[in-house]
TrEMBL record:
<keyword id="KW-0735">Signal-anchor</keyword>
<feature type="signal peptide">
    <location>
        <begin position="1"/>
        <end position="26"/>
    </location>
</feature>
<dbReference type="InterPro" id="IPR003582">
    <property type="entry name" value="ShKT_dom"/>
</dbReference>
<dbReference type="GO" id="GO:0005506">
    <property type="term" value="F:iron ion binding"/>
</dbReference>
<dbReference type="InterPro" id="IPR005123">
    <property type="entry name" value="Oxoglu/Fe-dep_dioxygenase_dom"/>
</dbReference>
<dbReference type="GO" id="GO:0004656">
    <property type="term" value="F:procollagen-proline 4-dioxygenase activity"/>
</dbReference>
<dbReference type="GO" id="GO:0005789">
    <property type="term" value="C:endoplasmic reticulum membrane"/>
</dbReference>
<dbReference type="Pfam" id="PF01549">
    <property type="entry name" value="ShK"/>
</dbReference>
<comment type="similarity">
    <text>Belongs to the P4HA family.</text>
</comment>
<keyword id="KW-0325">Glycoprotein</keyword>
<dbReference type="InterPro" id="IPR044862">
    <property type="entry name" value="Pro_4_hyd_alph_FE2OG_OXY"/>
</dbReference>
<keyword id="KW-0472">Membrane</keyword>
<feature type="domain" description="ShKT">
    <location>
        <begin position="255"/>
        <end position="295"/>
    </location>
</feature>
<feature type="domain" description="Fe2OG dioxygenase">
    <location>
        <begin position="117"/>
        <end position="242"/>
    </location>
</feature>
<keyword id="KW-0479">Metal-binding</keyword>
<keyword id="KW-0256">Endoplasmic reticulum</keyword>
<keyword id="KW-1133">Transmembrane helix</keyword>
């Protein structure tokens, strides 16, 4: 082999290595870290999906925003309205910074679903006794599916270890018979024992589908957040729709907010929590269409 070919080979090897190093920090997915926990619904856990740095970063973004909105509410005298909301969570806008964008790339690589089909990431903090009652992530009303269509998949990332409780449980999941050895059950709370459950571990991520492959909603995807018994639980949720969530729907050329607080409410998740007021319908438009990006 001539010196020229040798050094060419060497170059190819070198650039392959550097490409690997460059990509590995954010968007390389390792399928051997994924385990399937149920087929009905289709649900999977990825161990160590987020790095320590990514977990810390998301929590610190959420803390800053929660503090900011608490102060803003105090100043505008709207504290009563938002006390409930600030404790339930806030949203981190898509591609907010390099780290958030890297996490979104990774989610896209893992789920095989395009980045633009995702909503902003929802951050939730649960303290002692707080829970999320059983619910579906898919919607049945027209308002909520106006943007991006149905939610088809959810990626729930755990940002903290929870000493006791705080599991995500699928109460009507069909459990594969080989799972659930009694020993494994021991550190689950009573709530978690009522179905197929995932214990929150810092950095792990749960992916489940709310629609069957034929796009029909899957009632087995009913899920709940068990009460936190000991410790504090932080999570980040990415909902992914069947269509782009960034695409603007029919625009009448009059895209305005009707209230000065719209942007802040949108950041607190009101577009999803309170769509009748915020988004409305074609016949009866809501008050914050601009901030909710529906026009
Ligand atoms: C809100 O305002 C009250 C007095 O107006 C003050 O005592 C309280 O500390 C403020 N809370 C925050 C979170 O700024
Ligand atoms: C835009 O909407 C506002 C509020 O509904 C209304 O007052 C205004 O007349 C509209 N403007 C146009 C050009 O349709
Ligand atoms: C905005 O909403 C707040 C709270 O509902 C309300 O008190 C205020 O009057 C609204 N402002 C306008 C301009 O409608």
């Amino acid at each position: 082999m001539s010196t020229v070919t040798l050094s060419l080979h060497f170059l190819v090897v070198l650039s392959t290595i550097s490409l690997f190093i460059h990509v590995s920090s954010s968007s390389i997915i390792n399928p051997s870290k994924v385990k399937q926990i149920s087929w009905k619904p289709r649900a999977f856990v990825y161990e160590g999906f987020l790095t320590e740095l990514e977990c810390d970063h998301l929590i610190s973004l959420a803390k800053t925003e929660l503090k900011r909105s608490a102060v803003a509410d105090n100043l505008s005298g709207e504290s009563k309205l938002s006390e409930v909301r600030t404790s339930s969570g806030m949203f981190i806008s898509k591609g907010k910074d390099v780290i958030v964008s890297g996490i979104e790339d990774k989610i896209s690589t893992w789920t095989f679903l395009p980045k633009e089909n995702g909503e902003d990431m929802q951050m939730l903090r649960y303290e002692h006794g707080q829970k999320y009652d059983p619910h579906y992530d898919y919607f049945v009303d027209k308002v909520n599916i106006a943007r991006g269509g149905h939610r088809m998949a959810t990626v729930l990332m755990y940002l903290s270890d929870v000493t006791k409780g705080g599991e995500t449980v699928f109460p009507v999941a069909e459990e594969p018979p080989r799972r659930r050895t009694p020993a494994k059950n021991d550190d689950f709370s009573e709530c978690a024992k009522k179905g197929v459950a995932v214990k929150p571990r810092r950095g792990d991520a749960l992916l489940f589908f709310s629609l069957h492959p034929d796009a029909v909603p899957d009632p087995n995807s009913l899920h709940a957040g068990c009460p936190v018994i000991e410790g504090e639980k932080w999570s980040a949720t990415k909902w992914i729709h069947v269509d782009s969530f960034d695409k603007n729907v029919a625009n009448s050329g009059n895209c305005t907010d009707q209230n000065e607080s719209c942007e802040r409410w949108a950041n607190l998740g009101e577009c999803t929590n309170n769509p009748e007021y915020m988004v409305g319908t074609a016949e009866l438009p809501g008050y914050c269409r601009r901030s909710c990006k529906v026009c």
